[in-house]
Every structure is written in C-alpha cells, then in structure tokens.
Design a protein that fits this description.
4 helices; globular; five-stranded parallel sheet; single chain; 41% helix; alpha/beta
C-alpha cells in the first residue's frame, strides 16, 4: 500500500497551514503546503500527492476553481474541503471526497478519515 501518505494542505491563512502541519506530520503524513490556489496547482503538478486538504474560501483562486483544475490534471486524487462554512455550495459536489468543518472536528477523527480516504484511493488506483 502506501508508505507515507502525502497530503497537500491549501489555505490562505498561515496559522491554519501551521496547525495542519503540526497535526498531520506527527501522525506520519508527508505534508506539503500552499498559501493559494495557483501555488497549490504548481505543487500538485510537480509532486506526488495522495490527498488534497483545501480551504474552500481563499483570496484569489477559491477552492472550487482550484479543485476543478486539479481534477483535470489528476482526477483520481481525492480532495477534502476543510472549511469554516457549515455547508458547502452545490458546485463543490463531485469535486470533493468529503468536507470537514474547521474547529468542529476531533483531530483524531481527521487523521482517521484521511487515512481511510488514502486507503480507498490506493485500492482504486491498484485495480
């Protein structure tokens, strides 16, 4: 299966990126970060990424536009929206594997969910 699950965290808030890194790296994930949609797309093209954990509302290119571009490049890579919104707009349907609400999720649940998504994605790629 996967040795290290590589996650691209995308958020225009540096504090959130720092928190995500501090949560995920000790749990054994490889973490890349991007502060905007354009930077995320560049990393997504240049590095092997297993999951994208992305904010929905960012300045410049929002999460929907970024996710659409990523899905054109690598449709098999799961995207998880991590947002302060209680509900995501319908345009996010079909782009995201799921969404998590910032500040509402237990850190251990986030780690478990990301591991589960990575396992599912690896099985799909292997078949």
């Amino acid at each position: 299966m996967l040795d290290v699950i590589r996650i691209l965290c995308v958020d225009d808030e540096p504090t959130m990126l720092s928190l995500e890194r501090r949560l995920l790296e000790p749990a054994g994930f490889g973490v890349s970060t991007a502060a905007c949609g354009q930077e995320a797309i560049q990393i997504f093209q240049d590095e092997p990424i297993d999951i994208v954990l992305m904010d929905y509302w960012m300045t410049g290119m929002n999460g929907i536009d970024t996710a659409e571009h990523m899905k054109r490049l690598h449709p098999e890579v799961p995207i998880v929206f991590f947002s302060a919104y209680s509900e995501l707009p319908s345009e996010s349907l079909g782009l995201a594997e799921t969404w998590l609400r910032k500040g509402q999720e237990d850190p251990e649940d986030i780690i478990s969910l990301l591991r589960s998504i990575a396992r599912r994605a690896a099985l799909i790629r292997a078949s």
